[in-house]
Write a structure and sequence with these properties.
62% of the residues lie in helices and 0% in strands. It has 144 residues and is mainly α. Among the domains are: 38 residues; 37 residues. It comes from Roseicella frigidaeris. This is Pyrroline-5-carboxylate reductase. Keywords: Coiled coil.
């Protein structure tokens, strides 16, 4: 092999490598363009189908979960309040018999006569007095 033949063969391989590299770079560019066009077509199809993004779906699902939990909590509170109200209600009258009507004057005791206002304790009605203070004026009880 002569030195010129070796160079020619090496130069030919270099040329082929350069052409192949150029072809690969051109194919890579075409590949990028095809991917971009396909992505644009898929985006247009999604817009026409009125689909939602995954993030929006997840947010809506979380909102629905919280609303469901709040509704369950409120249902439990209503049930507890209804049970409490049922316990406070008077027993129902016999079927068909009307409940007796009690006039307000008959159900309330007669008012007590007002004592003479000799002391500050007498000025405060008995209903408003506290156990800590017999006079109801906020003073400590006096040892008598």
């Amino acid at each position: 092999m002569s030195e010129t033949g070796g160079r020619r063969r090496g130069g030919l391989l270099d040329d082929l490598a350069g052409v192949a590299g150029g072809a690969f770079s051109a194919l890579a560019g075409v590949r990028g363009e095809v991917e971009a066009a396909a992505r644009a077509q898929v985006d247009a199809m999604v817009q026409r189908l009125d689909l939602v993004k995954r993030e929006d779906l997840d947010a809506a699902m979380e909102l629905a979960r919280r609303a469901r939990e709040a509704a369950e909590t409120l249902e439990a509170r209503v049930a507890a309040l209804e049970a409490r109200l049922a316990g406070m209600a008077s027993p129902p009258a016999a079927a068909g018999a009307p409940a007796p009507v009690v006039p307000p004057a008959a159900s309330a005791p007669p008012p007590a006569p007002a004592p003479a206002a000799a002391s500050p304790a007498a000025a405060v009605p008995a209903e408003e007095r506290t156990e800590a203070s017999p006079s109801g004026l906020g003073e400590p009880p006096r040892p008598d």
